[in-house]
Amino acid sequence: MYVNTKEILEKASKNYYAVPAFNINNLEFLIAILQGAAEKKAPVIIETSEGAIKYAGNGDPLRGAKFFVETVKNYAETLDIPIALHLDHGKNLEYIAAAIKAGYSSVMIDASHEVFEKNLEITKEVVKWAHASGVSVEAELGQLAGIEDNVMAEENVLVDPEQAKIFVEKTGVDFLAPAIGTSHGAFKFKGEAKLDFERLKKVKELTKIPLVLHGASSVPKKFVELAEKYGANLGGAKGVPQEDIKECVKLGINKVNTDTDLRIAFLAGLRKHLLENEKEFDPRKYFKQGMEFVKEVVMERLEFLNAAGKA
Ligand code: G3H
Ligand code: 13P
Ligand code: NA
Ligand code: ZN
């Protein structure tokens, strides 16, 4: 069934587990993710970036947003697990409005690049509109960018727990993404992974709402090596170890954003199949291996985040 993200995350927050939020661009990812979640009897969050909506709508945000809502809703009605659809990193009000109008379960307003007061003001406004339509809201504090080169970010880039408390109280936001040392993409750390667990713990204590970990891909060695075996070049790829994510879940993370791992798994399957089957030109056949690998990543995440069996 198609549900509000808040319903999924409040249950996770009360029971100390996390639900993965998987980014999709196309039907193949969606089908593979939903199959994996259904097999694991787990709740799941599907998310689309503004870029994904633009791609699906051929440039028209409302057309793209409606496409995803209709597709996810229709598929969700056939499955006996809670499924939510979320706008990831909403930065343009046009996309946020389109997602709310189309019927997304939740939206993220990412004004984390603005100074604290401005972020608070914009987030508060979006919360007002979204809540009026029954849509829940995620916001971000601190910045993910700038946490490169294995340099622990400056104090002002990671979330300030005291500010988080004020931010949550004043905006009425439903979930918060605190920057604690992760970054987006396949190249997260040059040396050892380093997250600020102490800071995360304080944010949870002071806000008590569901928290979100962005940049949470683990960049599985198996699929990186397989993609490289079939011609990809992903030298230096490194993600967040599963053990670190589990620690984050103990400390209050309830939504674990994952895009890169699915992309790499799909790439590995696609490259493998195409290079091994030179005569293949049926997309249902050459996407199949990629979809199987995406499903494998999905099922493994549902398992180690303890979302399996929670539908
Ligand atoms: O946070 C970023 C997500 O991985 C989505 O990326 O804007 O390329 O769709 P995208
Ligand atoms: P990854 O690039 O680590 O998969 O992060 C995805 C993300 O945070 C989407 O918002
Ligand atoms: Na998000
Ligand atoms: Zn993100």
For the largest beta-sheet, the strand count, sense and barrel status come to:
8 strands, parallel
CATH superfamily: Aldolase class I
Q: Widest sheet: strand order?
A: 6-5-4-3-2-1-8-7
The total count of strands amounts to 8
Strand fraction: 5-15%
Could you tell me the mean pLDDT?
Answer: 95
What is the number of helices? 13
Q: Stretches where pLDDT falls below 50 for ≥5 residues? A: 146-156
Question: Taking Cα atoms only, what radius of gyration do you get, to the nearest Å?
Answer: 19 Å
Order of helices and strands: HEHEHHEHEHEHEHEHHEHHH
Question: What's the number of domains?
Answer: 1
In whole angstroms, the N-to-C terminal distance is 10 Å
Overall geometric form? globular
> Any idea of the CATH topology?
TIM Barrel
| Structural class category | alpha/beta
CATH class: Alpha Beta
Distinct ligands, ions and cofactors found in the model: glyceraldehyde-3-phosphate, 1,3-dihydroxyacetonephosphate, sodium ion, zinc ion
Summary, kept brief:
The protein has 13 helices and 8 strands. By secondary structure, the protein is an alpha/beta fold.
Topology:
Blueprint lengths: L4 H10 L4 E5 L3 H13 L4 E5 L1 H7 L4 H16 L6 E8 L2 H10 L3 E4 L6 H17 L3 E6 L19 H11 L3 E4 L18 H11 L3 E3 L7 H9 L12 H9 L2 E6 L1 H17 L6 H4 L1 H17 L7
Parallel strand pairs: 1-2, 1-8, 2-3, 3-4, 4-5, 5-6, 7-8
Structure description:
This protein has a single domain, classed as TIM Barrel (Alpha-Beta Barrel), CATH 3.20.20. The chain is 49% helix and 13% strand. It is built from 13 helices and eight strands. It has an eight-stranded parallel β-sheet with strand order 6-5-4-3-2-1-8-7, with helices on both faces. Helix 7 links the parallel strand 5 and strand 6. The longest helix is centred in the middle third of the chain and has 17 residues. The structure holds glyceraldehyde-3-phosphate (G3H), 1,3-dihydroxyacetonephosphate, sodium ion and zinc ion (ZN). The site of sodium ion has 6 residues, from strand 3.
